[in-house]
Amino acid sequence: MSNDLTRRSFVKWGTAAAGAATLAGFTGCAPSGQENAQKEGLSDTGDAPAEETGAWLTGACMNNCSCGSSRCLLKVYVEDGVPLKIRTDEQDEDSIEVPQRRACPRGRAQVSNMTSPARIKYPMKRKGWSPDNPNGGMRGKDEWERISWDEALDYIAAEMKKAYDNYGPRSILCAGYDDIGDTYFDPVVCLLNVMGGAVHHDMGTVSLGSWPLPEMLMTGGMLAAPDSLAVQDSQLHFHFGNNWMANKGGNTAYQLDYAKREGGKVIIVEPWLNQTAQAVADEWVPIVPGTDTAFCIGMAYHMIENNLQDQAFLDKYCVGFDAERMPEGADPKDNFKDYVLGTYDKEPKTPEWAEAICGVPAADIRRLAEEIAGTEKVNFFAGQSTTKIPAGEMFAQAFYTLAMMHGGLGTPGNYASWVGLHEGMSATPYCMAGDSSNGAGKNPVNPLTPPLLMSTPNWVEIEDPASWEKIDHSECWQSILEGAYGRDVWPGGKKPIDIHVIYSGAYQNSLNSLPNANAGIEVFRKVDFVWGANPFFDPSRQYCDIVLPVATWWEKGNIAWMNNSDTVYWADRIMEPLFESQPEGYIAEELAKRFDVDPSAANTMTDAERTYSSLSGAMYMTDHDTMAYAPLLTVSQADIDELGVDGEPQEGLMTVAEFKERGFFKIPRTKGDALTSVPYKAFYADPEANPLATSTGKFEIYCAGLAAYINSVGFSTISPIAKWQIGDPEQGAGTQTEEFPLLLWTPHSLRRAHTVNDNVVSLREAFPQECFMSVVDAEARGIETGDLVLMTSPHGKVLRPAKVLPTIVPGAVALQDGAWLRIDEESGIDLGGDPNILQAPKSSGEASQSWTGTLVQVEKYDGPLTLDPDKNTPIVMPVGIEE
Ligand SMILES: Nc1nc2c(c(=O)[nH]1)N[C@H]1C(S)=C(S)[C@@H](COP(=O)(O)OP(=O)(O)OC[C@H]3O[C@@H](n4cnc5c(=O)[nH]c(N)nc54)[C@H](O)[C@@H]3O)O[C@H]1N2
Ligand SMILES: Nc1nc2c(c(=O)[nH]1)N[C@H]1C(S)=C(S)[C@@H](COP(=O)(O)OP(=O)(O)OC[C@H]3O[C@@H](n4cnc5c(=O)[nH]c(N)nc54)[C@H](O)[C@@H]3O)O[C@H]1N2
Ligand code: SF4
Ligand SMILES: [Mo]
């Protein structure tokens, strides 16, 4: 692939937009002087007020800043159809009760993103591809030619028909999201379902970690988190793997900072002194990634030894802590306390035992255990990534067990959650937009009910593994190469798979986002036909035969959607689709015609119906305990007539016009109001009358159901109680080798929402993609900051500059998620810095990719390749296409 072609001649958009966005892009999340200047009418360059002849519209930031929900207000200034400037929420006082929804640097760089030279401008075909000779080996290297929409759609329809006729739906891989609701709807997926379906690589999760099942089965909860106003009741915030400052849009870090100012102490257990620990923590506890389980068990030992646990709470509300309170049918010897003390295995899990695994000094383990036990109200939190480890459930088990030993769950100030605050992902949102999803129907290849969360828990399906047709995310590339997928434990063992066509669309950049990306490239090069649809010429599109330009949310718009569980947004259409791009609905309808399918069966709603549905179905919560909701918007007959849809007028809190004018609705809150959520409150008040939704009705420190489920899936074996174990013989702490002595982990980056925004120069400049390593490991290798280092794993090689830090735990290195891969064809080395070139494809437990713990080596690079700074590295453009 060549990188010589750059943004040289990118139309006037580039020049008009880039300057404004770059300058507006770095104001951070808190109000600043610059923002105030904007309020006073100064332009965002700080110059004298410019005459504004355009309009400020509400723009969508649809980035995935936490599992499908994005959350910040963008106001976009549009003149002559061109977006020029961005502001964020400046309405209302910025109070802790109703904080402003202020966009981050990524959101504020959206003008540069939406108008980026990385946009696919026209339908394109790879020059070396023809229906008779796909020439697949040239994918990712070939030149491109511009073709018409009709030509492109004809080719795609013919190739898809060929695959459906000759090999059936199981020969088509939909490398994109399934029908998962209104944030991401792709009518093309709906069309595939009408045609007989396709295989999706969506068994399990790359995202949630191993949290959902332990939460459900040990506590009966689902995404149970305190709300942002209740969290201030805690005296101690004991957090594992928290980087809210960088990876939770919205106000989570602000709220934690407020809770601290209200007297709470913040302790963050982390492999590095990340942005959040720097900003809010009273103490940073450095830990070897993937070993928090041992750390918790070491603290439990000290608590038990000194009788510091809340025994009354354990006796009344929990099963499985000690031999006296085991659930029916369980061997009393298998209780947690005896495991910790080493009563039967003769290995006491002392703080010294834990130190040897997790690297936290035993004295600190004792001190922290005492601090937890000595504090009445503790808010335990652990980030998703803490369970993205081999046998990931073990940490969730240890985490909940620690919180149960502390006691008080169900009372204000005592919480244990992996979601952090109710304002993020929530099973009980405070408000929501109406459903505007496509009604995509079921994928006939995998007709099982879609689980509540996007991809996990698969336990709905675990009851009938024989019916699984989903390929595990982590192993999907390998499975396709090997022609078999699944687990040996499945009835009948692994299942054959023979993929001929890949649809690389539906809001995924899977070539870049899934582990073992080199195998992904091999898969893309192996099949008969690959077609992509995306707004951007990102890696998953670079390896296609035909690509279609998709209109972004700024070009679709006219929709209300829920972000934070506490805000409903309106998205205006900001601009006309750039160049020849079209919404996905157009692609689905045009292909449907070519398949002799009724286009409305694929694209089930008109744009107007979608708008109406999103508005009329918008709701807000009136009482958390009873889960009562009321309609949000007053929709008049005139609104309905204007849209030209069928509908009934309704009464709500505000009119559609008011909602559009403001751009959003924020749930009004006051401390202690009817929306306050204290998880497990009713159970605490009366455990007999309000049992938990667990098999025993109590908190299950010993959870037989959890172990049974996990062990039936076939990825890892866990125990019904929290135990430290080496979860995989080739990954994670305890498995390092001489060849690969370092543990890789891949925290999410301020520069990107996964792979989105990696094309934005200002963000590349602000947040270079570096190999973060400790002074200890760097010195041992003669590496200094700025040196080029070669990162090697059994799966690939990545070249990056090193960033040597005293604030990172020795023995582990970090490379942040989402950088666009850019392979040097001669050496096979990735110059872009995609950690998935290195990542081991390893599912654990409930089928959750273990992003933390791939074994790597890092060496000073002395080969012929060079790297420009990220900001000067041109993005990959389609060679052969006129700019
Ligand atoms: N800016 C930005 N924000 C995002 C995203 C993004 O791409 N960019 N992605 C969004 C999405 S879809 C998701 S799923 C969430 C993910 O949310 P998380 O899983 O919470 O995100 P990470 O950044 O991987 O990890 C959070 C912190 O946990 C630490 N950590 C990793 N492994 C361990 C461990 O074993 N032990 C301990 N104690 N700490 C550990 C990391 O160093 C990091 O500081 O983020 C969301 N937010
Ligand atoms: N190494 C490593 N890998 C990881 C992770 C990690 O921590 N480490 N995290 C994992 C996690 S938590 C997640 S959730 C996944 C995310 O993996 P992906 O979902 O693949 O990542 P995104 O970059 O969010 O991809 C969104 C895609 O949608 C496209 N898009 C944007 N707007 C539109 C539109 O209007 N229409 C269409 N059709 N497409 C559009 C974007 O251009 C982009 O290609 O990555 C996982 N990968
Ligand atoms: S990138 Fe994420 S956090 Fe930033 S403004 Fe957009 S949605 Fe908000
Ligand atoms: Mo995610």
TrEMBL record:
Pfam families per the UniProt record, alphabetical: Molybdopterin, Molydop_binding
Limits of the Molybdopterin oxidoreductase domain: 119-594
Region (Disordered): 91-110
Entries under Gene3D superfamilies matching the protein: 2.40.40.20, 3.40.50.740, ADC-like domains, Dimethylsulfoxide Reductase, domain 2
GO cellular component: outer membrane-bounded periplasmic space
Gene Ontology MF term list: electron transfer activity; molybdenum ion binding; molybdopterin cofactor binding; oxidoreductase activity
Keyword set, alphabetical order: Metal-binding, Oxidoreductase, Signal
Claim: Metal-binding is one of the keywords in the record: yes
Membrane spanning stretches: none
InterPro entries cross-referenced by the UniProt entry: Asp_de-COase-like_dom_sf (IPR009010), MoPterin_dinucl-bd_dom (IPR006657), Mopterin_OxRdtase (IPR006656), Prok_Mopterin_Oxidored (IPR050612), TAT_signal (IPR006311)
Any one GO BP annotation for this protein: anaerobic respiration
Family the UniProt entry places it in: Belongs to the prokaryotic molybdopterin-containing oxidoreductase family.
Protein name: Molybdopterin guanine dinucleotide-containing S/N-oxide reductase
Source organism: Adlercreutzia equolifaciens subsp. celatus DSM 18785
